[in-house]
């Protein structure tokens, strides 16, 4: 059984918490793409774990986790992250493995990433983690895969600085590098979670190009990155927040207007902890964009939506969601390709009545206030996809599951 979990917005939807929650019933977790640009927060037993590269299943002591083929891995960051986890009581040796086909991010890539951003026609607000450079070199056929460092012929053509860098980690890596394709073939009948990074709107092909990241953050990425075929996917979960956020540059039709909605923006930023886990930047915030969400559901065959941060709206009298764009006087529900159109898109909002009470302790969908259910049911009707999991807080148990998602 293979479940794919992707971000259905511009990243930071709460994928880490959801993967951690679902990992209890899984045998393995495979993070399939991205690199140290990601930031996944997990809160368990009052400890906050901040993950960038390591798959979110790591918190469970008995689970095996894999870093997938389409990941780009900064080795220094990885071993720093593992050191921190070890200090937090997480034992990772013998249960964290890396696909031999994953690419290495060398230190020079980070420098180049920052330099390129300075001369870019459209500065995108990269996290500066060398991600774009690694994926560019991979496409240019100049990248180095982790498995390659154990191939004498390839090792010999590495530059001295590259050799010095990989030599520091070679012994540790030797025990971690695996042929993921072989393992996935053997574990065909196990329960596996394929964990995405970033979000579909940051995917270079279907996202808001050029304001995107460079790894595949859409559902198809789980196949190449997780070493399974498309027909082996049993369910695709799209995680989204009750509102939208974005870090870095790029169009954001429903973004709050600081003059009129500044107070609301601050409230959500503080209660929702809307600061980047990787860079600490305050995230841009706006109302839920259903036009974009519906597009993402269709482009990724999402058949279960996972709603997070709905509790952040607890104190609001009313709330809005965007149900169409008005672009140059014309109303549309089509998600535009043109960045200029998206920048000019004025959101058409539907207003919903707030519920005005705390829902963090609610354990069952039927016990949610009618107004909350009304908001959720509207989302389902608009997107045509059921909201099967609802998160009402950071803790693992602040999660409601409406149906068994371990089924096709
Ligand atoms: P998680 O997995 C939110 C954004 C950056 C920037 C653009 C390109 O935590 O959801 P890059 O460093 O990849 O060249 O940056 O993409 N970005 C993210 N935004 N969440 C993420 O990951 C992101 N990873 C990259 O802010 O605008
Ligand atoms: Mg994040």
Characterize the structure shown.
This protein has about 400 residues and is an alpha/beta fold. The protein is built from 12 helices and 18 strands. It has helices at about 15-25, 75-85, 105-120, 130-140, 150-155, 160-175, 180-185, 220-225, 260-270, 290-300, 340-345, 370-385; strands spanning about 1-5, 30-35, 40-45, 45-50, 65-75, 95-100, 105, 175-180, 190-195, 235-240, 245, 285-290, 305-310, 320-325, 330, 345-355, 385-390, 400. The strands form 3 sheets. Strands 1, 2, 5, 6, 7, 8, 9, 10, 13, 17 and 18 form an 11-stranded mixed beta sheet that branches. Helix 3 packs across helix 4. The longest helix has 15 residues, at about 160-175. The protein starts with a strand and ends in a 7-residue tail after the last strand. 6-O-phosphoryl inosine monophosphate binds near residues 34, 38, 125, 129 and 202.
DSSP summary: helix tally: 12
Mean pLDDT: 97
**Unreliable stretches covering 5 or more consecutive residues:** none
β-strand amount? 15-25%
| Range of helix content | 25-40%
Q: In whole angstroms, how far apart are the ends? A: 8 Å
């Amino acid at each position: 059984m293979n479940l794919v979990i992707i971000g259905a917005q511009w990243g930071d939807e709460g994928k880490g918490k959801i993967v951690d929650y679902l990992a209890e019933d899984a045998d393995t977790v495979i993070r399939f793409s991205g690199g140290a640009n990601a930031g996944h927060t997990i809160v368990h037993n009052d400890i906050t774990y901040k993950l960038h590269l390591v798959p979110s299943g790591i918190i469970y002591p008995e689970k095996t986790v894999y870093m997938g083929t389409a990941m780009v891995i900064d080795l220094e960051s990885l071993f720093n992250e593992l050191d921190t986890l070890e200090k937090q009581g997480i034992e990772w040796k013998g249960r964290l493995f890396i696909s031999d086909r994953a690419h290495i991010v060398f230190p020079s890539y980070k420098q180049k990433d920052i330099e390129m951003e300075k001369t870019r026609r459209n500065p995108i607000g990269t996290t500066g983690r060398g991600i774009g450079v690694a994926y560019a070199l991979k496409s240019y056929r100049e990248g180095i895969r982790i498995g390659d460092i154990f191939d004498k012929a390839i090792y010999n053509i590495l530059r001295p600085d590259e050799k010095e860098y990989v030599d520091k980690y070679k012994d540790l890596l030797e025990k971690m590098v695996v042929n993921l394709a072989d393992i996935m073939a053997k574990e065909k009948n196990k329960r596996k979670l394929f964990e995405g990074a970033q979000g579909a709107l940051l995917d270079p092909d279907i996202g808001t190009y050029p304001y995107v990241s460079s790894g595949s953050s859409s559902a198809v990425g789980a196949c190449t990155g997780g070493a399974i075929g498309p027909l082996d996917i049993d369910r695709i979960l799209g995680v989204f927040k009750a509102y939208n956020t974005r870090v870095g540059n790029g169009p954001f039709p429903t973004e709050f207007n600081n003059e009129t909605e500044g107070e609301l923006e601050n409230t959500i930023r503080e209660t929702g902890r809307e600061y980047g886990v990787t860079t600490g930047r305050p995230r841009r915030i706006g109302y839920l964009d259903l036009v974009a969400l519906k597009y993402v559901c269709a482009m990724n065959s999402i058949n279960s939506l996972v709603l997070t941060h709905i509790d952040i709206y607890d104190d609001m009298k009313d709330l809005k969601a965007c149900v169409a764009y008005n672009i140059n006087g014309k109303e549309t529900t089509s998600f535009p390709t043109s960045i200029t159109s998206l920048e000019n898109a004025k959101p058409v909002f539907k207003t919903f009545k707030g519920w005005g009470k705390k829902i963090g302790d609610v354990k069952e969908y039927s016990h949610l206030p009618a107004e909350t259910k009304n908001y959720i049911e509207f989302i389902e009707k608009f997107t045509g996809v059921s909201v099967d999991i609802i998160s009402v807080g950071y803790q693992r148990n602040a999660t409601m599951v409406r149906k068994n998602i371990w089924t096709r």
